[in-house]
Amino acid sequence: MNGTTWAILDRAHAALRTAVRGVPDGGWDRPTPCAEWNVTQVFQHAVGDQLGYASSLTGGPGPTENPFTPSGKLTDTPEALLEPALVAAAAAWGTVDASVQEVRVPLPPGTMTAALGVGACALDAAVHAWDMAVATGQPSPLDDELARPLLDVARQIVEPVRAFAFAPALEAEAGGAEKGEAAELLRYLGRRPDWA
């Protein structure tokens, strides 16, 4: 990465775009692995978080509603809401060199290295892409190649925010079919890899 290109963020954003485009008519009210939120609310949360990362880096406008209390009501088409958030996050991170040791982020402790911060932003996009995809019958956008670096990020950032941002980690089930880094990441984030 050269300070303007973050492959992990590009892949996570592509996963989120694909998941949003794949939500079928009538799919926005379906339940998700985030037990208290439907697809619309997960989407709103994901959009708000991307804007939150961009705002932390640039001082520009953040989300218009609290990403942790999504209303479930969209004010525009999903793509019209998603694209500006992803563009803002990518542009903000595009100004940050990989060697930077401290950038502002919307998570405790408020600052991280550039690599960890962009990883946290990517983790948010990728896991919510997975939430939306599995809730609407799409293939998982989270493969082991993407999950591998995100699992490392998760292990560094999740515990201080687990109480309000992630469910308790799940143990692998004996004899369970779900293996690999993607399944391990999902379990660490409190999600069942075989959720349906």
TrEMBL record:
User: What sequence ranges are listed for the domain Mycothiol-dependent maleylpyruvate isomerase metal-binding?
Assistant: 9-133
Tell me the InterPro entries matching this sequence.
CHP03086, DinB/YfiT-like, Maleyloyr_isom, MDMPI_metal-binding
SUPFAM superfamilies named in the record: DinB/YfiT-like putative metalloenzymes
A Pfam match is MDMPI_N
**What's the protein called, per UniProt?**
TIGR03086 family metal-binding protein
What is the scientific name of the source organism? Streptomyces durmitorensis
The organism's lineage is: Bacteria, Bacillati, Actinomycetota, Actinomycetes, Kitasatosporales
